[in-house]
Structure formats: C-alpha cells, structure tokens
Write a structure and sequence with these properties.
This protein is an alpha/beta fold and 277 residues long. Helix content is 35%, strand content 20%. The termini are far apart.
C-alpha cells in the first residue's frame, strides 16, 4: 500500500483511541527457518507490516491476507522514506489503534536503527516491544562453519559498519580494530572495502590475515569469496559480489578451514540443494 494513503487512514498522530503496540522485530539474516518463534507468531498476527528491503518474500508471506504491508526499504543513496519519516509513520499507525510489526533484516538493535525508532515511540507514549533476531554475523558465519570466537585463535569479536552518512567520511578507530586476536565483522562494507582494508593494514594488521566476504548470506543467492586482507577488494570485484555483503577478517576463517568444519557444512549444503534423482 502507498505510504501516503497509510498516513491518511492513520490520522494525524493524535491518540483519539487507545494506541496499538509497535513490535520492532528482527527477521534474521535471510533464511525464513532462522526466524524466532516469537517473530513468526507476531508476523502472522500483524495488522500492519512495515518492512525493509532485506526481508525475504517467504517471510512476508507468513502475514495474514488482511494485513496491510508497507515497504520502507533502503538501499545505498536510495531511500523509500527517510528514517525520520519512518519514525513518524510508526507513531501514526499505532496512534490509530493498530498493532504494527516493524520488520527488519537481522536484529533491530544491530545496525538496524531500531534504537532511533524506539526513542521516537517512547517520546510519543506508544507501547512497543523489541523482538531480537539472528544478526548476519552469527547467522552467515554459522552457515559457513566459521566460529566468531575460537579458543586459542580469537578471544573476541567486533561488529562495525562500513557505511556512513552521505558526505561524511568513514572514520573508525583503525588501531583498535587491527587486533589479530579478534574477529572483525563489517556490515554494509562493500562500497568502502578498499579503504577499510588499507586502513587496517596501515594500523598494523598483517596483509596476510585471512578474510572472507559473503553476499546474501543464508539465502539461495549466497555467494562467497575467500582471500586475505590485502587481496579481498580485488577478490570481491573479480567474483562479482553484490550487496548485501558481510566482510569477515580474522584467523577464524583459516582455522575453520583447517579443522574441516567449514568444508563439511559446505558439502552438506550442496547436497541438500541438489534434488535426488
């Protein structure tokens, strides 16, 4: 449904009736089987579904035929609605007395801007609930057999975004991130991959550090490429990976290959994807 039409039907934001509840729901990394039971139930019961670009169609199809679907997805430099308007839309919808599921890829509080939406709902006195989802880092890496942490290899993991606001330079604490004993996971890093790998190397991380990129992880469109910190930008370009891309830098990539974990899972996935004769 058109966002403008939704706004008219929802009223002007004054709570003339008891407001509905907004559920900020994580849809997981892509595979519908990775939804939480709570998320599945709320999607089925939703009166209005406000959803992002990375939510799979099979997840949207879990909603009732009577549910109103509102697309507010974003892609780089191309937003259906600015974030401030999405915040206002959620308030208007709930103020009309409807229960709203705000559906986001991954987890709403990990690079999902769920915190901004929760702040706006709290200011407006709208009841809300946050339903966590499996974030891309754990979902995609688990499917590839790569542990985020591994005894003797990686004592911790760091999640950062490789995307910044338009016109704002990417400024991260590169020295802190260039830790050989930490797994570094970069969300939305495709457009700045060359800058990030150069900065990490300049900050002291070895150019030979194992690295991997995965596109559309956990979905049938998944594509990966393996390289090192020094080669990954060229590897990604050569293999034609497209957004959304998750970048993983750290010794766990190689450790999983040495142990055979990743190979076993890859072989199993291939077998399951090929129909038996």
């Amino acid at each position: 449904m058109n966002v403008a039409d939704i706004g008219k039907k929802a009223g002007d934001g004054r709570c003339e009736k008891t407001p509905g509840t907004v559920y900020l729901v994580g849809a997981g990394p892509g595979d519908a089987d990775l939804l939480t039971v709570r998320a599945h139930r709320l999607i089925e019961q939703a009166e209005v579904l406000v959803y992002d670009r990375l939510v799979a169609e099979e997840i949207l199809e879990l909603s009732s035929q009577s549910a109103v679907r509102v697309f507010v997805g974003k892609s780089p430099s191309r937003h259906t609605l600015p974030q401030e308007e999405i915040n206002s839309l959620l308030v208007r919808l709930a103020s009309s007395g409807r229960n709203v599921v705000r559906l986001k890829g991954g987890d709403p509080f990990i690079f999902g801007r769920g915190g901004e939406e929760a702040e706006e709902l709290a200011r407006a006195g709208i009841p809300f609930e946050v339903v966590p989802g499996i974030t891309a880092a754990s979902g995609c890496l688990a499917g590839l057999g790569i542990p985020l942490t591994h005894r003797g290899v990686a004592t911790g993991a760091r999640f950062v975004t490789g995307h910044c606001r338009e016109g704002v330079p990417l400024e991260l604490n590169w020295k802190s991130l260039a830790d050989p004993e930490t797994t570094l996971v970069i969300y939305m890093g495709l457009s700045n991959i060359a800058i990030m790998t150069e900065q990490l190397a300049a900050a002291g991380l070895s150019p030979e550090t194992p690295a991997l990129a995965v596109s559309s992880g956990t979905t049938p469109r998944q594509k990966t490429c393996r390289g090192t910190l020094a080669t990954l930008p060229e590897d990604v370009e050569r293999d034609g990976l497209t957004a959304p891309v998750l970048i993983v830098i750290g010794q766990v990539v190689e450790a999983a290959e040495r142990s055979g974990i990743s190979q076993v899972l890859v072989e199993r996935a291939v077998k399951e994807a090929v129909p038996s004769a």
